[in-house]
Amino acid sequence: MPDPQDRQPFDLTRRQVLEAGTIVSLTGTMLPAAALAQPAGPRPSPENGMTVPLSFHLSFRVNGRPTALDVDARTSLLDLLRERLGLVGAKKGCDHGQCGACTVHLDGRRVASCLTMAAKANGRDVTTIEGIAGANGLHPMQQAFIDHDALQCGYCTPGQIMAAIACVKEGHASTPEQIKEYMSGNICRCGAYVGIVAAIEQAAPRIERS
Ligand code: FES
Ligand code: FES
Hints:
By secondary structure, the protein is an alpha+beta fold. It has seven helices and seven strands, in the order ααββββαβββαααα. Among the domains are: 55-130, Beta-grasp domain (Ubiquitin-like (UB roll)); 140-209, DNA polymerase, domain 1, CATH 1.10.150.120. The chain has a five-stranded mixed β-sheet, with helices on one face. Helix 4 (140-147) crosses helix 7. Mean pLDDT is 85; it is low at 1-10 and 21-39. The protein binds FE2/S2 (inorganic) cluster (FES) (2 copies). Residues 151-157, 188-190, 192 line the site of one FE2/S2 (inorganic) cluster. Residues 92-95, 97-102, 112, 114 line the site of one FE2/S2 (inorganic) cluster.
């Protein structure tokens, strides 16, 4: 069993983040305003004696651009992207990991950014819909979605496209049935599924497998 002292400061468990959030709630009602104005500092975890930072310095790459900023430890990757970095392509549909509208890539793998703590991105690469077009134009998957009218309102589309690219790279786009299965985590309330499957079939041969 790993020594808790060996853990990195950003290697937070969900429980520790919740504990940190509880501490903030309690101090918010008990401390005077002057104390609340102080920068948030580490608080001991009652369970294991570790320190749980309430804010931390995050350093990562977003769409290839090095980015560093101080972040509240409770921040989700989705909120970080949308509210701190102005990258509003990833959408907040359910905020519970059930719709896929918030899908982005973390080190090339698709994740639901609403369920991913911003701290998990430290030192890693995040790619959003804003970062996939190349110097020569749209990403093949973007173009395929246009070609097949694979959207109506467009709210789910950034997440669909990010999931679709990952689906192809994972090798899960060999047949329409396989595409449907591995895209099942991305909900389209407009029902554009026929176009989405057709778009993925068109783009798949033009996307390199990882
Ligand atoms: S907003 Fe993240 S899965 Fe729905
Ligand atoms: S295009 Fe409207 S939710 Fe998918």
